[in-house]
Specification:
The protein is built from 7 helices and 34 strands. The strands form 3 sheets. The protein has a 24-stranded mixed beta sheet, with no helix packed on it. It has an 8-stranded antiparallel beta sheet with strand order 27-28-29-30-34-33-32-31. Strands 1-2 form a two-stranded antiparallel ribbon. Strand 24 and strand 25 form a beta hairpin. The protein is α+β, with helices and mostly antiparallel strands. It is rod-shaped, with a radius of gyration of 52 Å. Among the domains are: 1-36, no CATH class; 41-75; 86-158, no CATH class; 364-504, no CATH class.
Length: 507
């Protein structure tokens, strides 16, 4: 039912679609008739003004013109394009490689403008420009075998990113990177698209930040780092962008701050740290940027301050401390930067004024309690004076005196083992020492009582021994400290004891 209705419209449309082919066929037949006509008659001419022009000539001229239009403007051969300076356009097609040689424009299979420049056998060769899919110029320069060999790379906004050599599409060889403001960012060698080899790095103001070797885009090997003002900051070895190996760190004024080993950007191994004045501050071993191992610390005037062992930047282990004028002060064990353990306090003549134990920077007289007399002589030498003292209970005691140290030790027989002796008390007579201890105990006691009148950490008792003598007795940590004043206001002696605890802890 529908077919009879639309059939009258379809037939004319089919005839219309065939019109171009019919017109071309009729024109070709007419040209053929004119060109092959053997007899020349009046109908073989066309009047033009006062002249007659043969139809065959008109057809020949028309065909020549059509050929010229086609081969010059529509699809010119390579030699015609070169002759007239035309730039032909090519579209990449799968399975159909380009073969053209000369200057051309190339579009990719998606129709995006891709390349403009010289081709050789269809391959980019010579001066040319590459464009991104948005039609923005991306790279330009000299191409070789389809790849950019030397030239420039630009960002999407047209800013210059790189200028130099390329290999397989990547920065390679000598080149220059640029900051967005146009200043040089890096100048030197590249490998696989990143700085590698000798080069210089610059900040956004064009100031040199680093000069030396690069690996993987980072400072590596020998190099020099600079402050923003241009002064040398560091000279030496790098690894992965950090100081690593032997090097020298300097201040902006040019003074050497440190010279020695580095690991991961920190002082490590043997090195020397300096004051700003140029004198040595420390010489010795470092670890993770801190003094660690054996070394020597100095005052700014050049005199030694400490010589010995360090742990994480503080005195720890065996060492020797000095005053600012170079006078030896102490020799022995340290912990946490303080005298701690067995050691010696030294006088101005360099001789020991005290040999014994220390705790948190102070002499620890309680450490002697419980020791044997033999152990005391092993530490201090044979006692210059020994005195047997009778006691009320009839048990004799031995007093070992060391006048050079202003110390004396009370030796008792062990109740559990009469064949064994132990130190039951230590007596001190050095005025400066016992006065400092008395002041320390009194200050501590007053503070504790002020905070808590019922405190039990430190007990104090004052006893009148005679009209001319008194004793201030402090009890702390099970130890008894008896300060003897004779006359009443003159401190004469300190006795430190530990009761039965001393015997139980003898060693």
């Amino acid at each position: 039912m529908i077919e009879p209705m639309i059939k009258p419209f379809i037939a004319p449309l089919k005839q219309t679609a065939a019109l171009p082919k019919l017109a071309v066929k009729k024109a070709a037949d007419a040209c053929k008739t004119i060109l092959t006509a053997k007899e020349v008659t009046k109908q073989s001419y066309v009047p033009i003004g006062n002249y007659y022009v043969q139809k065959k000539l008109i057809v020949i001229v028309a065909l020549v013109l059509l050929a010229l239009v086609y081969f010059i403007w529509i699809k010119p051969p390579a030699f015609v394009s070169r002759m007239f300076g035309f730039v032909p356009t090519f579209h990449e097609k799968t399975g159909t490689p380009l073969t053209y040689t000369g200057k051309a424009k190339v579009f990719d299979q998606a129709g995006w403008f891709k390349y403009e420049g010289e081709l050789k056998d269809g391959v980019f060769q010579g001066p040319g420009k590459l464009y991104d899919p948005k039609g923005k110029l991306n790279r330009q320069g000299e191409f070789d075998k389809g790849q950019l060999a030397s030239g420039e790379e630009l960002g999407p906004d047209g800013t210059l990113l790189y200028r130099g050599a390329f290999a397989e599409g990547l920065y390679s060889g000598t080149g220059t990177l640029f900051h967005p403001n146009g200043k040089i960012r890096y100048l030197g060698e590249f490998q696989a698209g990143i700085p590698a080899g000798k080069g210089k790095a610059f900040d956004e103001n064009g100031k040199v930040m680093y000069e030396g070797s690069f690996t993987g885009g980072l400072y590596a090997g020998d190099g020099t780092e600079y402050y923003s003002a241009g002064a040398v900051k560091y000279q030496g070895q790098f690894l992965a962008g950090k100081y690593n190996g032997a090097g020298k760190l300097l201040s902006e004024s040019g003074a050497v701050l440190y010279e020695g080993g580095f690991t991961n950007g920190l002082y490590s191994g043997e090195g020397t740290e300096y004051f700003g004045t140029g004198s040595a501050k420390y010489k010795g071993a470092f670890m993770a940027g801190r003094y660690s191992g054996t070394g020597q610390a100095y005052y700014e005037n050049g005199n030694p301050k400490y010589s010995g062992d360090f742990v994480t930047g503080v005195y720890s282990g065996t060492g020797e401390a000095f005053s600012e004028n170079g006078q030896p002060l102490y020799k022995g064990r340290f912990a946490g930067g303080l005298y701690d353990g067995l050691g010696q306090l030294l006088g101005k003549d360099g001789k020991p004024t005290y040999v014994g134990f220390f705790r948190q920077g102070q002499p620890d007289y309680t450490a002697f309690l419980g020791m044997t007399g033999a152990k005391i002589e092993e530490l201090l030498g044979k006692a210059p004076e020994t005195t047997v003292v009778d006691t009320p209970d009839g048990t004799p005691e031995l007093l070992m005196s060391y006048r050079n140290y202003r110390m004396a030790f009370t030796v008792k027989l062990s109740e559990s083992d009469p064949q064994t002796t132990y130190i039951a008390a230590v007596k001190l007579t050095d005025p400066d020492t016992i006065e400092a201890l008395a002041a320390s105990f009194e200050e501590r006691y007053r503070k504790l009582v002020k905070d808590d009148p019922k405190q039990t950490l430190l007990a104090k008792t004052s006893l009148g021994v005679s009209p001319d003598e008194r004793r201030d007795i402090y009890i702390a940590d099970s130890y008894v400290y008896r300060f003897l004043y004779s006359p009443v206001h003159t401190l004469k002696e300190l006795e430190v004891s530990g009761g039965q605890k001393a015997e139980k802890t003898k060693h």
